[in-house]
Amino acid sequence: MSSILTNSSAMVALQTLKSINSNLAKTQGEISTGKSVASAKDNSAVWAISKVMEADVNGFKAISDSLSLGESTIAVARQAAETVTDLLTEMKGKIVAAQEENVDRGKLQTDVKALRDQIATVVGAAQFNGLNMVSGTDDVNILSSLDRASDGTVTASNISVQRQDLGTGQGTFGTGASLAANGTASAATVADTANTAIVTVADTWAANDTATLTVAGVEVTFTAAGAAVADVGDGLAGLINGLGLDGISATGNGDGTLTVSSTRAFEGVAVSVGETTAGDGSVEITTINGGALGATSGTIDERAENIAFSNAAAVNEGDSYKVTIGSSSFDYIAGKGETMEDVARGLKIAIDSSGDADITTKVVQDSSTGQWSLKVDNAGASANFAVSGNADGTASGGLFGLDSIDVTTDTGAVSALDNIETMINVAIDAAADFGSAAGRVEIQNTFISKLTDSLKAGIGSLVDADMEAASARLQALQVQQQLGTQALSIANQAPQNILALFR
Question: Where is the Flagellin N-terminal domain (predicted)?
């Protein structure tokens, strides 16, 4: 049936043309924007995901900037630590030269002071954007990542870099909990009193009987002329004295006994006896270190007293330890990450810095237990000896004691040689730690760069238009549009044909 009121064919052609035009407009939009999902209207779920990922990309760009800043800051600190290491090594050369007595120690001290001042200049200038990582003890956090959980929660992650204090400050002694139990002094006083061994010659001696006495690895032999035990004891004492052993002497007591004395500060002295007799003669060590022995061998203790530090106790930043010798006190306040070895070496440096020629020190570790001890020898008058400690102090600088190095005296030159090794190790450890941290930051920065590229690629796969497909689709839709227009034109001509029926 034909109708001039309702043109069904035209309506169908019109709807088809509208659909073609709509698709054509969408395709043209993809081509002009390059995106298949340009707004939430196009695909709300995909658009929302892409926007979250775009926000993360922007965040990672800021993180990359933070990592680059941190990398530069650490590089400055590492270079400073390496420079300080080189300067300390050069200073060690001056200190080694000062061990000789026939050198101008005054000029060497001038060189040491110049190097010390240069170290202070390097440490003070080693900052980047106002941050100095070779001064102070607070950790520095470098923003390294944004971690998004499955529930959408975002957490910032940091790379924590520990500062390496290369300052020379003494620190502030703590007033917190007592740490006295962490260190034990071997005696209440420290003095120049020699330690001794009593050797007893007894019984009957015949002519040509021999007695041997070995002290510090050197053996002497006395041949008896008769039965007098006093002659044997006095003879052995004379032979020992004739050796000229450093810090070792012997005294014949005129009654068949002799006293072997040792003032060696940090070395025990082995003593042993023996005899070859035709009769009943005998030699034995009856007393050593003040205690009964009754044996053929033993060891005279070193003269120095010691402070043994606990193996079990932890060392926290600000832990403060004090050694008292007579009327003088010497402090060291531990820094972050230090151990009892550091405490012992810090106290050694503090004591050596006093310049007291009578006081010498040494840090040792027990090979069987691993326990660290600070040994203190006093070649002067007897002095009180004690150790104490408190928590919650302000840490000493990593190069504590550098300012007090003095090679103009024998005592100062000797102590400086030992202490400069401790300081060199501190600087080396600081440079190594900065190097490790720099490597980690660099790796993270590279990863963030690659991760950002991956996120961008992922966003593109979600929202970017397939330009090849869009181009082909555009051409097809343009042809469909032309055909749709012609179909609508034909459908609109149908009512005109009805006029022919009325002619």
Answer: 4-137
| 293: CB partners within 8 A, 6+ apart | 197, 285, 286, 287
- In this prediction, the residues of the chain whose per-residue pLDDT falls under 50 are none
Amino acid in the structure at residue 374: L
The pLDDT, as a whole number, for residue 490 is: 76
AA identity, residue 221: T
21 Cα distance to chain centroid:
71
Is the distance from CB of 138 to CB of 163 less than 8 angstroms?
yes
**E runs forming strands in 236-296:** 248-252, 257-262, 269-276, 282-288, 291-295
φ, ψ at 335 (rounded to 5°) = -100, 180
User: Do 273 and 259 touch, CB atoms closer than 8 A?
Assistant: no
68 and 76 in contact (C-beta within 8 Å)?
no
Residue 229: alpha-carbon gap to chain centroid: 63
pLDDT at 302: 95
* Other Cβ atoms closer than 10 A to 1: 4
Backbone CA torsion sign across 395, 398, 404, 409: positive
DSSP codes joined into one string, 309-360 = EPSS----TT-EEEEEETTEEEEEE--TT--HHHHHHHHHHHHHTT--TTEE
List pLDDT tens digits, range 109-127. 999 999 999 999 999 999 9
The strand order across the sheet containing 383-390 reads 189-190, 383-390, 320-325, 328-333
Please provide the average confidence, as pLDDT, over all residues in the chain.
Answer: 89
Taking the mean position of all CA atoms in its chain, how far away is CA 166? 12
pLDDT of residue 272: 96
pLDDT for residue 320 = 97
Neighbouring-strand partners of residue 73 = none
Sheet hosting strand 218-223, strand order edge to edge: 218-223, 210-215, 269-276, 297-300
The 3-class secondary structure across 70-137, one letter per residue, is HHHHHHHHHHHHHHHHHHHHHHHHHHHHCCCCCCCHHHHHHHHHHHHHHHHHHHHHCEECCEECCCCC
Separation CA 434–CA 132 (nearest Å): 13
